[in-house]
Amino acid sequence: MHHPIGTRIGCAGVSAALFLSLAACGGGSGTPSSAAPSESGSASGATQTLEVWLPAKATDGNDAEIWDEVVAPFEAEHNVDVTFQFISWKDYEAKYSSGVSTGTGPDVGYMYVEMFPTYIDAGAVEDLGQYLTEEDYATYTTLTDKYKIFGKFYGIAQSGPQAVSGLLYNKTILDSIGEDVPETWDDVIRIAQKATQDTDGDGQIDQYGVAQGWGQTFYQDLNWNWYNFIWQAGGDIFDDDGKCIIDSEEGIAAAQLLYDLKNTYHALPEDTMSLINTEAFDNYFVPGNAALAFVGTSESTFNSLADADFEYGFTYDLKGPNGDMGARASVDQIVLMSACEDKELGWELVKYITGPEGGAKYRELTGSAPSTVGEEDHGFALTRDALAASLDTSIRPIKAARRATEVYDFLWKTLQEMMNGDVSPEDAMNEVAEFANSLDYSAPAD
Question: How many Cβ atoms from other residues are within 10 Å of residue 6's Cβ?
């Protein structure tokens, strides 16, 4: 998915604030709880409260209605009132940082990969190794290495792989220029050039090779405009130790491809720098005026094409120069916060809203992919088979790394400068690596 971050405290600042807050409150230092169901609510006779923070995700804005239905059985069984805060994606990280650092954060929350390192280092999120049982490992299909952060489980995925970034193509345009479905970067370059045309003879380009937007004010659109490309080039942003390696030959190749699509081949719309990626998709691909688009393959994406008067398709398996593939997927997770006073009850809620009862109900109501064994698949039918086929070859999450949010923010702004023609691809990648590696990315001392 998409994890736009609004105004936020820098990672180092958040970590320091969290450490101070937890030290003052004694957070994270309690005795680890067992994985046994909590009886504290019903035993005392008083209704307890658990607070949950989630991003506002429902396309109809009915998050509260969905979650009220999901948690009602849990509330009745445990004599607990589960309260929710639904926070916009843009404000989510800043709100979470502020809440946890001031001791007013949630008991249970939602984290995406970029968020985890800060909270792990601060001791603010529970290592689930002390809670998970053999039954849990047998129940969840998402308790795999792809979902580990720094080699451990700190959360449980809300659903199977979602918001996978893919390449959509207008087959009607491809047929008109004598091209097949693109399989490689060379195909993309050739198609992008051939498809960029003045189709009505008025002297103005009205059909483009690629519908892509570079005007986003924060790094959300890295999801569609960067991660896949660097993986397809055979590179990555960080190595396993957290060092930024984006200035590698592979990183520069990915940047060069994007630079050339706009500045050498002129295959992007003229207003590409003022549009976010979804706007470029809606303005050019949906009306049939672009051959290709790199977007999240969600149900809402395809719903926008319901009235399209052209044939289209998509792929997750685009290959870079050496045959490497990569399609970014969200592995966002539900976490138990260390400040939760009743961790047994909090853990039971985490399992309930991700597991075969409440979790399955949530996935049914939202059309999400399953994450437990034997669960019915309510994921979007159009992408179901393609996801399954590419799960072990192309689809992957981004790598967790300390100070990553600061690096992504700098990377996005530098890519925008590059796409504007103000800096070369090589210089852009060198600048990002220099900035990233000037920041401390070592693990805190025990």
Answer: 14
